[in-house]
Structures are given as C-alpha cells and as structure tokens.
Amino acid sequence: MTESYVCIDLETTGLDPKRDKIIEIGVVKVERNKVVREWETYVNPNRKLEERIVELTGIQDEQLSKAPKIGEVLPALFEMLGNDVLLGHRIMFDYSFIKKAAVDHKLSFERSGIDTLKIARKYLTDLESRGLGYLCGYYGICHKAHRALEDARATVELYRKLTESFYEKELTEGGPDHLFRPRPLCYHVKRDTPITVSQKEQLYKLMDRHKLILDVDIAELTRSEASRQIDRLLAVYGR
After folding, report:
1. What are the backbone angles phi and psi of residue 25, rounded to the nearest 5°?
2. Cα distance between the two ends of the chain
C-alpha cells in the first residue's frame, strides 16, 4: 500500500491544457500516512477570467494580477513534489496541465500516480456520482469545493476511506491492474514557442487601428495564443 505521496489539485481557466491556464495550485504531502506539509499558490494566467470560472471558484482577477507566473512557480512546485507518487481525483487532468507548463519551460516532468476517481468508479457503482464533492458528502469528509488546497485535502481523506474499504479486496481481485498501485502517467504535448516579432507588430497595429485594449500581456503570449488573438480580432473588427 502506498503510504507516502503528494496529492495535487489545480484550479484552471478551463479544461484544455493546450489552451487553458493554471490559476491555483494546492499540494498536500503525506509521509507514512501522515500529512507533513501543505503548499498553495495563486498563478497569474495572463488573461481575464471568464465569469463562470469566477462563480465556480470564487477567485477574482485582482487576486491573480499580482500572483507569480507559472514559470516562477514551477521550481517551488517541483521541490514540493520531489519524486513522490502523485495522488489526485482524476489525476490526469492535473498532471496534463503541469506537464504542459513544464514542457513550455523546457523542463521534464515524468511521474507515476494513483487516481481516486478510478477506484471510486470501480467500487462505488451504485452511487449517483463519483465526483469529489459527492463522495465527500457520502463519506462525511469536510470539503470546500473548487479551491485547490481544499480539494487536495479532501482527496487525501477520500483515499484513506477508499483504502480502508477496498484495498484488501483490490489486492486479491485487482491482479496486474491493481488500482491502488502507482502507474506511470503519460501525456504527450508539444512546447509552445513565444510570440513572434511579426505577431506583436500585427497585434499592436490592430489595437491601435480599432482603439482596443486587450486583457493580456502581449509579451507573455505564446505563438499559438497570439495567433488566436489575431484571428479573433480580425473576425470581429476586420483589418
């Protein structure tokens, strides 16, 4: 049984790691089944939050405007994670965002993980939902949803409950697909390159011509993000 691990949870601007950005990270480090350290941070996504994200998380643009960028956050995050097993509820979601950020900053991020969602889907089939909030209610776990550290804390407690209930059963029935055993996390993604000089010039010309103010720092855009901004402005305002 895995008794030492780090549980990670993210809040993001959306669901696509290739387009969306991390806005909050929460980490709980567990050694020998005891929480030994917690860590959290906001992350500046270099864009204005959509209203649905503000309503979901309660996080405001003002809280993110002075937060560090992801490149500044990664060293502290990786120090916190070490080489430990990752735990998460739908861990591939969180891993894919961190992997994308790492690749964009020319860093390696290869880990193994345990997914409490997969365990719940196998053994709690009669429940209406296997979402984290629903499972916390089912097990009586205190939980403030959609905040990174609170979700990470809740996932640690959920893992303990699932282990108490199903580990021995999985040990005898799980075979090579033992869901409590860490598995390599695989997510392939290409590095985004920085915005080009010609893209910067085109964006500034469009902004000047149409008297626009963008809710992003143009210098921080990637090439693909700049391309999408240009396409959007051309579609709405023309050349």
Report:
1. -125, 135
2. 61
Specify whether the CB–CB gap between 159 and 35 falls below 8 A: no
Nearest to 24 by CA among 172, 143, 146, 126: 146
Q: Do 69 and 44 touch, CB atoms closer than 8 A?
A: yes
Question: What pairing do the DSSP bridges indicate for beta strands 112-115 and 5-12?
Answer: unpaired
Using one digit for the tens of pLDDT, what is the confidence trace for 9-49? Answer: 999 999 999 999 999 999 999 999 999 999 999 999 999 99
Residues of the chain with pLDDT under 70: 174-176
Scanning the structure block, which residue is given the tokens 């998380």? 57
> What are the structural domains of the chain?
5-184 (3.30.420.10), 197-237 (no CATH)
Q: Which residues contact 229 (CB under 8 A, 6 or more apart)?
A: 203, 214, 216, 221
Residue 67, C-beta contacts closer than 8 angstroms, at least 6 positions apart? 41, 42, 43, 44
**pTM reported for the whole predicted model:** 0.91
